[in-house]
Amino acid sequence: MHRIHSNIPEGPLTEKWSSYKSNQNLVNPANKRKLDIIVVGTGLAGGAAAASLAEMGFKVKSFCYQDSPRRAHSIAAQGGINAAKNYQNDGDSIFRLFFDTVKGGDYRSREGNVYRLAEVSNQIIDQCVAQGVPFAREYGGTLDNRSFGGALVSRTFYARGQTGQQLLLGAYQSLSRQIKQGNVEMYPRMEMQNLVMVDGKARGIICRDVITGKLERFSAHAVVLATGGYGNVFFLSTMAMGANASAIWQCHKKGALFGNPCYVQIHPTCIPVHGEYQSKLTLMSESLRNDGRIWVPKNKEDAEKLQKGEISGSEIPEENRDYYLERRYPAFGNLVPRDVASRAAKERCDAGYGVNSTGLAVFLDFKDSIARLGKDVIEAKYGNLFQMYEKITDDNPYEMPMMIYPAIHYSMGGIWVDYELQTTVPGLFATGESNFSDHGANRLGASALMQGLADGYFVLPYTIQNYLAHEINTPRFPTDLKEFEQAESEVRKRLEDLMAVKGSQTVDTIHKRLGKIMWDYVGMARNKDGLELAIEEIQNLKEDFWNNLKIPGEMDDLNPELQKATRLADFLELGELMAMDAMHREESCGGHFREEFQTGEGEALRNDKDFAYVAAWEYKGEGKEPELHKEALKFENVELKQRNYK
Amino acid sequence: MDLKLKIWRQKDSQSRGKFVNYKLNDVSPDSSFLEMLDVLNEELVERNEEPIVFDHDCREGICGACGMVINGRPHGPDSLITVCQLHMRKFKHGDTIVIEPWRARAFPLIKDLMVDRYAFDKLIQESGFVSVNTGSAPEANSIPVKKHYADLAMDAAACIGCGACVAACKNASAMLFVGAKVSHLTLLPQGKIEAKERVLQMVAKMDELGFGNCTNTGACEAECPKGITLTNIARLNREYYYAKV
What we know:
The complex is a heterodimer of chains A (646) and B (245). With 646 residues, chain A is of the alpha+beta class. In chain A, 38% of the residues lie in helices and 14% in strands.
């Protein structure tokens, strides 16, 4: 039985982090170079953590499955990064950023963590500017900001539509500097397959070399996960093709509790699904909602004509358009948080007002902004996004309204961690999107980059020392211990089992079936019957996977099908846990919408009395029910309310 | 549409490679080029053959993982996009499409269409950074940057490290890649401090890694999916001479 303690420091909210830092254990410089740290993943959290730890003097081993650490999927984030600088003099503050984030997360995150996040947000901007991140600037030379969903202030820093890319390159370049200095050993094209524990502590990992197929062992005094989200359980998502949950899932099976697996974010502005062959969904930055207006026809006859392709959106006169977000939420309008915007789109489309051939799309229209600001201004702000849209859909968004629909985007859930970002396995830490911590049940736009870099640059490098200070007498150890042997043979057995199935179905065929189950029953709207059915269907699919899977090629070789199969094996197990978590949470909150629990107006209806807790699931073994642990959430600085964006 | 595909197959860096012909029918014009290859690979797996190996990840044109030479052009016939953003409506029913890997000494082949571009990472490791430790940064607005230079720096920083410039160049030169990084950092006050050492070290490393020289042909600029211009090579040369004298 695990005891879970959030370990949030005592004292007033505003002093928790500074008092933690004043009282924590540190490791002296001579001892730092005797300590090894494994960091898995090289996105914003992993890249920043590896670079920062190496700068401090620790010896770091950094891993990524891609050919280069620069390709982690943080690179695809478009819109921006939040910080409480208040450069726009519009009333922003650390408290307001904290408040917006807790409210945006529908009161399902920890006050202490979120306040710390808001506190370090300003340092992140300083650090990135010093690295040479080319943020957008005003003519006077100072930094520019824009507004984003769920906030009434402009606090988002951005680098055109490529903010994630530029922030990642900043972290990557700092990491590269440490590689050159010999403080980081870089292992690209290496995929983590298992966690090695010695005497109850995380001591190493087993990786599969993607090119040779060989299994390799690595040891360290601590292991940091920074492996991103698990949206690909849905097959179609805005994630990179290779993004997977295997590292966190294997750690979960070794004792790390999984926090709030049912909290996934569905992003409202993505290019709609267009065919069976489709491999992924493309996001159009939320920043487009600053100047684009979302609408569907007022009359169903118009919608039906659009669906049959008889008319185009621009032919529908102004008075026959329903700007439903502006109608339902006059205060926030098109800038309501993502979960609210996504559900509103689904509601209109389910009611028959969808605007493309599948009936699953709404318009995002720039006509008014172009008339007000001119095409040049719109092009300067969103040119790359408009170009991307045109290349994919063959429609020109300067002339025709864009068509968008919600898609799976971000995982608020993840490995459960305490205030120090330590999991329930001693010496195992989780950062960035891979942990569950800061976004509650819904993440606000431009907050993922903030959290990834906060964890990587300013939180983990401190908190991990509180653990490592007790490890200074542990010498570097070899990888021929029986624990490494055991962990490697577990991986080998699994790979052999996969290769031995020799059935008739490809990995993608099965993955698409899983994705459909997840989207239909564990997606934007969930209910008890659907979730029960989903669990049953996933179990059947798992059986099908282990009996009918087909993988060509060899195990000890570059084998993309085997690589995909190992990931899918874990997605199948995780998908089931997501459905169980969604079923047990008998309330609606943020991205988790249970149809049984809604207000008369169709808004999410929380149940704070019974569900103001983090659900942390413990793995109990193959075929056994996982055990639920509850971490109660205490709100001392924010009053719990029905979220109101009207 | 129905297509004939001539695809480079090579088991590993030591084996001899060859073109293999495939037929693919009923390709949707709305699918992306990589989705077309996914469909072919599914057919190959169904027939118990090994699928065609190629790098790809984000499929949004930003990670820089994908890249192949299509009918003689890196990233194919469309302009300002990567292969993952190329759509089949750019081709016609009955077309023959020739698909090859990047070919450059500094990018050794791994398998089929997959090559090793770690040489690019080595260039950045050499000195493609600002030496600033976490925690030591001054307040972000303490150094104003003229919008014009911030914009030019962003133009250069948009490079995704895909390697199309090297693949397009008859000398397999990395001048556009290095020029972009040198420009990005030198245009900003934060990067100016190490400008001389950076340009000298990166140029020396480029030679050491086996990239060729620049002969101002401009193929790199023509094929760059992010529109990185030759101006960046000019700036690299200027910075190099400035550092030398």
